[in-house]
Amino acid sequence: MKHSNINKLYSDFKVISILLLLASCQATQPEPTPPPPPEPVVISHETASELVDNNPWEFFTDYSSPYYCLHSETEPKSNEPVWATPTTVWQRIRLGFEMDYQIKQKRLDAEFNWYQRNPGYMARVSERSRRYIYHVTERLEQEGLPLELALLPIVESAYDPFAYSHGRASGMWQFIPGTGRMYKLEQTWWYDGRRDIIDSTEAAIKYLDKLNKYYNGDWLLALAAYNSGQGNVNKAIRKNKKRGKATDFWSLDLPRETRSYVPKLLALAKLIDNPRRYGCVLYPVANSPYFAQVDTHSQIDLAQAATMADIKIDELYRLNPGFNRWATSPQGPHRLLVPIENAVQFQQEVAKLPPEQRLHWQRYTVKSGESLLLLANRFNTGVDTIKSINNLNSNMIRTGQSLMIPTASKEGQHYSLSAEQRLATIHKKRKGGSNSQQIFHAVSSGDSLWTIAKRYNVTVKKLAHWNGIAPKDMLKPGQKLSVWIKNPVKIQAASRRDAVVRKVGYRVRNGDSLARIANKFNVKINDIVKWNAINPKKYLQPGQRLTLYVDITNTANL
């Protein structure tokens, strides 16, 4: 079929639709019966393929024309046309819509208008979803749930599996710690199941399905409860019942965030049901799997795994965001997601590599004053891992004892999306106001965000923001916190009116110790430890860089 004929066919569809619309407008009845939809036009697979090739950005999106039905030119035509198989995930999602997004509500209109005014947002978020949305859609369809829910991670996290909110919610589906544990999402030093694509999606489906059944099939109430909790929704329902008011979602007095949460999802459905009409550009995510799951059967270094799969390590982290460190968790899950085209190669390479060669090992002799926690922090591994590998029954170790410790095969910066490196990036990007200086505070036993904020004369909210954590997060001894202070004089030299404090960079030399450096610059050892978040029991290394805040009017060594 020539392009001119294809265009004519498409124009004919438009004319039919317009004529039918005009005919319905001329009806004299108060409530006219809408005209039946036009009969689907049967075209060949070859013609459909040509149409799609000439319109790569979503040809099947103009719902003013009938759907295309396909038949094979090599097979006899049957009475029942064969509907076109969706070529993109967006087409597939539309076919599974069940919720009413056409309802007239100001809150829905407000959210829809925002999406329309920000077309770049949908372009970015649809591109970001390309790794995950097919899997989400597939699992929702298998469980018989409405496919609008495939858009819920856009509302929750903009399809970012590394997202972390002020309410301590994490991952693509934004599970808080407690709800995550209820749905068996493991949260350890090595691994956080709330960010895992497979595990978090399974948990979200179970949770959403349970809420929907609890609210007798009312998806809007189920979604409201997913956002703010069943307690808030039930309280609002009881309040309306007591006053004789309706108890549907739109009538309830819910938290502000929840009142806009459900309309956001419905607005997305309206937009994605006809993106061309509303000027929305969607990344053409193929209706086919992006990744495959490969069993490793044991812990493995992620840098080594990326090399074996022939992909960049950032790609491996984005497909496996549940892993916090430089390796998979010793306790599992013992599987990795890789792009589907790399799965066979990775599976073959894993099969050839013995488990004992999947990590790098270092034999270490314990020195006086060292503990398992100190060694775990130094070598970026877990206390439990060291104990398990060395068959230790307790946390007690002795001077001269020999231990086998797993270590990363590459430098820390190579694992750019590990929890440690993501935090380092946050520390670099999130800064204080003008004329402020950054220092680092090493958390001690008994410290909290409130006590640290009070000490440095900053707010808890700002301290949490600078460190990418929630205001109610628990701190761990040894944790490194970034603090931006406007006047370091107030902290360390307030007693002297003529003090002039400056930030000084110092490179450790042979023979240097904390005591020697503190004496040289007339500062306290504890301050050096806090400014640099270092362990006072750990030896300084020649060439190591330290940040000092020195009163230059009281130091003869500058």
Attribute tags:
3-stranded mixed sheet, 41% helix, 11 strands, single chain, alpha+beta, 558 residues, 10% strand
Can you give a write-up of this model?
By secondary structure, the chain is of the alpha+beta class. The chain is 41% helix and 10% strand. The chain contains 23 helices and eleven strands. The protein has helices spanning 3-25, 45-54, 89-95, 106-117, 119-128, 133-142, 152-157, 177-182, 197-214, 219-228, 230-242, 256-273, 302-309, 313-319, 343-352, 372-378, 383-389, 419-429, 449-455, 460-466, 489-492, 514-521, 525-532, and strands at residues 41-44, 68-71, 82-83, 291-295, 335-339, 360-365, 402-407, 437-442, 480-485, 501-507, 545-551. The strands form five sheets. A three-stranded mixed β-sheet has the order 1-2-3. It has a two-stranded antiparallel ribbon with strand order 4-5. Strand 1 (41-44), helix 2 and strand 2 (68-71) form a beta-alpha-beta unit. Helix 10 crosses helix 11 (230-242). It starts with a helix and ends in a 7-residue tail after the last strand.
Helix fraction?
40-55%
Query: Which percent range describes the beta-strand content?
Result: 5-15%
Q: What's the N-to-C terminus distance?
A: 83 Å
Strand tally is 11
Query: Uncertain segments of ≥5 residues (pLDDT<50)?
Result: 1-10, 25-32, 37-82, 489-499
